[in-house]
Amino acid sequence: MGKLDIKVDENGYYGEFGGAYIPELLHPNIEELKSQYLKIIAQPDFQEEFKALLKDYVGRPTPLYLAKKLSEKYGAKIYLKREDLAHTGAHKINNAIGQALLAKRLGKKKIIAETGAGQHGVATATACALLGLDCVVFMGEKDIDRQRPNVERMRILGAEVRPASSGSKTLKDATNEAMRHWINNPNDTHYIIGSVVGPHPYPDMVTKFQAVISEEIMQQLQEQEGKNAPDYVVACVGGGSNAAGAFYHYLNNEKVKLVAVEAAGHGIDSGETAATTAKGSSGVLHGSKTLLMQSEDGQVTEPYSISAGLDYPGIGPLHAYLYASKRAQFEYVTDDEAMQACVELSKLEGIIPAVETGHALAALNNLKFEKGEVVVLNLSGRGDKDLQTYINYGNY
Amino acid sequence: METINMADMQNRIENVFQDKNKEKLTIYFTAGYPRLNDTTTILQALDEADVDIIEIGIPYSDPLADGPTIQETSMKALANGMNIQKLFEQLKDLRTITQKPVFLMGYCNNVLKYGTEAFCQKCEEVGVDGLILPDMPMNEYQIQFKPYFEKYNLKNVFLITPKTSEERIRTIDDQNGGFIYMVSSSATTGGSWEDSPERLAYLQRIKSMNLTTPQMVGFGIADYSALQLVNQYTDGAIVGSAFLRNLNPENLQSSIKQFVENIRTPK
Ligand SMILES: Cc1ncc(COP(=O)(O)O)c(C=O)c1O
């Protein structure tokens, strides 16, 4: 591997992945965002407001916790980056607040978002309540039935939850519906995408808002370990935003092994999986060229995972690039393995994680550590929202 | 062989736009809807009817620019078993059925997955004149697609909207496309048509630009008055959702004949 230089280029590409494959109807909105986002993010008053909210409202920095029993079990020093302790219970709030602040500076009064499990929807509804913005969240009809508590949370926060009844009625269709709504309401509306997916500049913008995770890890490791880089960073990948945030400041440090964990569902070859890098191929999904799961004929196929947050047929273009270039190692974890790891963490460390995060935890079994190696695992969310899934699993 | 085909295509498209007095009509339909094997029947009926250009939609699982009608016909067509291989098979005798210009409309992923060159080659082979890929941006066209479009004599159709800048429209006009697809308003397909002042201003503005590429207006056109209005300012109208809503599976031919007669008749 030569000297690493992983970053988005001016056309929004990471290697061959990325770009903005959007209908002309969205061109003005995307152009506006593309020409403004870096400038706005760099403004001192933006940074000041964003950082203050992350600190006093979200509760950052989130702790970096050395999990002693987990470390003993796996024979390495395992640190948990506690995004589960962020307000609303997951990393999603970092991006929601960042984009909501940006939307205000673009003069937008209305926010739309898509959500699968409801975590990004709740985070966006929260940011909108805080900042006085109208909020409509698109959610697949199937997911509305599966994720009632989060639907009600969004409503309590003042958001409208709009059922996406097209296609397969899940996250991918909620994303389509949000984009169509944006086409029909281009002037006063900003679309807060929930992961590092979508047309350029979304993947880069969301990565930048989530990069606070690895920025904190560097400082916290320096304090606790006397060095700012671990041997491994491990994170689960749905669209890839928590992983992008946890990897960001280490992307070009080749000594740090990056491990991205996808949901294998019932098994990679079961036909019921969300393991995009294992089963997908190159194509265009939601406005960017990336890896996605599709039929021979180029129709997007429906993924499957026990965890709604990983149940997405693609991954962000950054991750497609990390996979293709072998910069990151990809691991696949089944429903059962993830649930076992969730229960294990609950019993060992007294932390009930989100089922998404359970996938990252289970991947520890697939890695061979040298004694004394330092591992940072991004604990992307807490398990409150998944109580019913735990109950259905039953094995605790 | 190749040059003959190219000349045919040039003629097919140019012939349509030669007669400036006639109101021109493009009809869109989704391949594989209402039934898998209706494609050639619909093509025959459109050939017999007073229709100038035919647009065949490739059904796609995630049609971002389309409203409810085309989403539904696409889902139905996919459920019927439609796919690109089948479509090309159904189109193998296209040029014995009709001499009207035929464009395929689909999304980038359909083409990329098939292989851009293989797709373009197949289009030329069956006699397709051009492609409309609403999610293909201009810069990607120039880099990835244009060489193959040119090699296989396919015209590309770019979309413009009321918000597209004059500079961008001029660039699109320079691309030697089959026509410019003027999206009637900032909306997905199948919405309603109102003769708003903004809409008139848009039509007037584009007319006054004196573009060299013909323009056709689509999205939401459903009756004679809209057809007639856009023909005053541009080179024609494109009708999709309204056509699909009026298809009668029990009697395709007569429902198509009737629809085209209706939309061509002043009320
Ligand atoms: C707790 C948690 N982790 C991970 C994810 C997956 O998203 P991403 O890959 O963008 O981090 C989600 C998505 O809802 C989530 O709620």
Automatic annotation (TrEMBL), chain A:
Listed CDD domains: Trp-synth_B (cd06446)
Domain of life of the source: Bacteria
Enzyme Commission code: 4.2.1.20
Post-translational modification N6-(pyridoxal phosphate)lysine, affected residues: K92
SUPFAM superfamilies: Tryptophan synthase beta subunit-like PLP-dependent enzymes
Enzyme class, UniProt record, top EC level: lyase
A cellular component term, taken from the record's GO annotations: cytoplasm
Keyword entries, A-Z: Amino-acid biosynthesis, Aromatic amino acid biosynthesis, Lyase, Pyridoxal phosphate, Tryptophan biosynthesis
KW Metal-binding (keyword) present: no
Cofactors named for this entry: pyridoxal 5'-phosphate
Catalytic activity: (1S,2R)-1-C-(indol-3-yl)glycerol 3-phosphate + L-serine = D-glyceraldehyde 3-phosphate + L-tryptophan + H2O
Residues covered by the Tryptophan synthase beta chain-like PALP domain: 59-381
Pfam family, one: PALP
Keyword Transmembrane helix recorded: no
Quaternary structure annotation from Swiss-Prot or TrEMBL: Tetramer of two alpha and two beta chains.
Function: The beta subunit is responsible for the synthesis of L-tryptophan from indole and L-serine.
Family named by the database record: Belongs to the TrpB family.
Official protein name in the record: Tryptophan synthase beta chain
Taxonomic lineage of the native organism: Bacteria, Pseudomonadati, Bacteroidota, Cytophagia, Cytophagales
UniProtKB/TrEMBL annotation, chain B:
Top class in the EC scheme: lyase
Key word Flavoprotein present: no
Active site positions, chain numbering: E55, D66
Keywords from the named record: Amino-acid biosynthesis, Aromatic amino acid biosynthesis, Lyase, Tryptophan biosynthesis
Residue ranges crossing the lipid bilayer per the database entry: none
Catalytic activity: (1S,2R)-1-C-(indol-3-yl)glycerol 3-phosphate + L-serine = D-glyceraldehyde 3-phosphate + L-tryptophan + H2O
Pathway assigned in UniProt: Amino-acid biosynthesis; L-tryptophan biosynthesis; L-tryptophan from chorismate: step 5/5
Gene3D superfamilies: Aldolase class I
EC code(s) of this entry: 4.2.1.20
Record keyword Flavoprotein present: no
Family: Belongs to the TrpA family.
Role this protein plays: The alpha subunit is responsible for the aldol cleavage of indoleglycerol phosphate to indole and glyceraldehyde 3-phosphate.
Subunit and interaction comment: Tetramer of two alpha and two beta chains.
UniProt xrefs under HAMAP family: Trp_synth_alpha (MF_00131)
Entry protein name: Tryptophan synthase alpha chain
